[in-house]
C-alpha cells in the first residue's frame, strides 16, 4: 500500500511538471514536434527510477545532470535553457562542474571568469597530454602572483567550492582570501576540501607543481538540480579517448544521477568516419560510464537537423549523408546498452527541417547551430521527453 502511495505521488508530481512547463511558455513555438518516443522502455533503463525519486525529493538533496558534448553544449545555450527549466521547478543546486579557466569559444550562461593573470590553459581539443581527464582542460600557474576571479550570477549568495587538482608536492590554494593546503597526489586527480565562498570570489595557487582540471561549485545548502555542461567546440565522441587520466574515476567523484552524451553533429560532417568503428566506440564509452556509475541513468542525444551543401538541388543533396545512418546507430546502441535516446532530428521535423527553423529565426545562417529561441524550444522538447520517461518508469 505504501509503495502504491509513493508511486501515485511521483506520477502526480511529474504530471504537474509537464502541465506547469507548458503553462510557463509565453507562446507555443510554431509547429513543434512532440517529444520523440524512446525505443527503450523507461522502466528498464538503469537509474531512471532513482532519478525520478531524487527529483521528487529535490528540496532535501541534489540531483546532478552531467552533459558531455560538442559546440551545442560548449555555448551553454541548449544546456543553459535545460538548466533554467529544471532549476525553476526543483531548485538551484549550483553551477556544477566547470572548466578551470575560461576556454576560448566556450561560455557559461550563469558564470564568468575574469581578472585572469599568470595562468596557462591546455585543451584536449588541440593538444595531446596523458594527464587530460574529464572535460579535457588543464590549467597551470605560470607566475607566482597568479590570479583568477570566478563570478556566478545564478542568484546563490554562497557556494561550496572544490578544485579538481593534482600536485607533485604540497601546494597552497587561496580562495576568497582563505589559504587551503593541497596535499600531494602525484599523477592522480583529486577534489580539494570544501571551502564556502561568496558567489564572486578570487583565487590564486602557490604551486607545488600543481595543476587544475576544473571546479566543482554547488549550493551552500545541498538541494535542487545541477546541470554541468562539458562541451568542446568541434568535438566528436572520439575526443573522450584523449582523456587518459581516469575520467570515469573523476565522474564518480561528481556523482551524476544522469549522464547525457550529446555528440554527433561533427561526426555527420566527417566523410571519413567509419560507422562500424563509431558504433564500437560509442558502446565502449557507455560501458565505461556504466561501470563507474552503475546507479546513474544514461541518455544519448542524437544530432539535430543540419545542412552540409546549401546549393544542393534536393534535400538529399543538401543534408549530410551520414546524418540518418549515425542516428540509427545511436538508437540501436542505446537500446542494446539500456540507455535513453532523444531524437533531436525528429523533434525538429526530420529531413532538412533546419531550413524551416532558419526562416522562423530558430536556426542560424550556418544551418547547423540554433538561435537562443531554437535552443529554448529544443530544451523544452528534451525536458518533455525526460518527464515522460520519468513518469513511465514508475508505472
Summarize model confidence as the mean pLDDT.
90
Q: Which radius of gyration do the C-alpha atoms yield?
A: 21 Å
Q: Would you count the extended β strands for me?
A: 17
Largest sheet, described in full?
7 strands, antiparallel
Order of helices and strands: HHEHHEEEEEEEEEEEEEHEHEHHEHHH
The shape is globular
Could you estimate the helical fraction of the residues in percent? Answer: 25-40%
Distance N terminus to C terminus? Answer: 15 Å
Poorly predicted runs of 5 or more residues: 1-39
- The oligomeric status of these chains comes to single chain
Structural class category: alpha+beta
Percent in strands: 15-25%
**Helical run tally:** 11
Characterize the structure shown.
This protein is an alpha+beta fold and 395 residues long. 32% of the residues lie in helices and 24% in strands. It contains 11 helices and 17 strands. The chain has helices spanning 2-24, 48-56, 71-74, 78-90, 247-254, 275-292, 315-318, 323-337, 344-348, 353-359, 372-393; strands at 63-69, 96-98, 111-117, 119-123, 137-141, 147-152, 158-167, 171-175, 178-182, 190-191, 195-198, 200-206, 210-219, 225-231, 258-262, 297-301, 340-342. Strands 2, 4, 5, 7, 10, 11 and 13 form a 7-stranded antiparallel sheet that branches. Strands 14-1-15-16-17 form a 5-stranded parallel sheet, with helices on both faces. β15 (258-262), α6 (275-292) and β16 (297-301) form a beta-alpha-beta unit. The longest helix has 23 residues, at 2-24. The radius of gyration is 21 Å and the shape is globular. The two termini are 15 Å apart.
